[in-house]
Amino acid sequence: MRRMLRASRAVGTSAKEAETGVSQVRREGSFLERILDTDLKAAHLTGYKREVRFHTTRRWLFDFAWAKEKLAVEVEGGTTSHSRHTSAKGFEADAIKYNTACLLGWRVLRFTSRMVKQNECVPVIREALGRNHGVDTDGTKRRRHAKGTSKAKEESSYPQAERGSQSC
Predict the structure, then answer these.
(1) Which domains does the chain show, CATH number per domain?
(2) Which partner from 4, 47, 71, 83 sits 20 to 30 angstroms from 130, CA to CA?
(3) CB neighbours (10 Å) of residue 48?
(4) Average pLDDT of each block of 10 consecutive residues along the chain (168 residues)?
(5) Sheet harboring 71-76: ordered strands across?
(6) In 3-state terms, what secondary structure has residue 131?
(7) Contacts of 86 (CB under 8 A, 6+ apart)
(8) Listed residue (16, 21, 20, 47) closest to 34, CA to CA
């Protein structure tokens, strides 16, 4: 609740909107991005930039990006209402954007408004960054084994995710 109130002040929404999570669809993305930004800072996940352009000719932007790691985070606001993300044309445009990003070597994590509001994003982002930084999902450094390899945790936030997979 407190993090939603801080985020609401940053974008000028009312405390009631912050409490209920209800706001205009066009402002929801901004509101949700502020919540996630607050959560990332609280979790000490730094090194990201906001509104990062990743294509040389298209005006596509990622909501959050760790350029060195080629990890992008997209907050999909308005997924339960009639919005750009749920219309046929908007869904297809998003698919083209994300497929292009994948072909350029980016890993893209997508989160819904419910996932942001329930603070489900940070553990997944931490895990994705940990794979590249030698950090376990709890934020601690991995122990080195005799041959210089590190041992990753076997559990995943998403059961279907395969460890070491190079897919998008």
Answers:
(1) 46-133 (3.40.960.10)
(2) 4
(3) 21
(4) 53 48 43 94 93 92 95 83 68 92 96 94 95 52 48 44 52
(5) 49-53, 61-66, 71-76, 107-112
(6) helix
(7) 78, 79
(8) 21
Calpha distance 106→128 (Å, rounded): 12
125: tokens are 């982002």
Q: Which residue has the tokens 């909107």?
A: 17
| pTM for the full predicted model | 0.64
Structural contact between residues 40 and 125, judged by C-beta atoms closer than 8 angstroms: yes
Cβ-contact 144, 150 below 8 angstroms: yes
List of residues 6+ apart from 56 with CB closer than 8 A: none
Using a 10 angstrom Cβ sphere, with 0-12 exposed, 13-18 middle and 19 or more buried, the burial of residue 149 is exposed
DSSP class of 152: P
Which residues are 135's β-sheet partners? 141
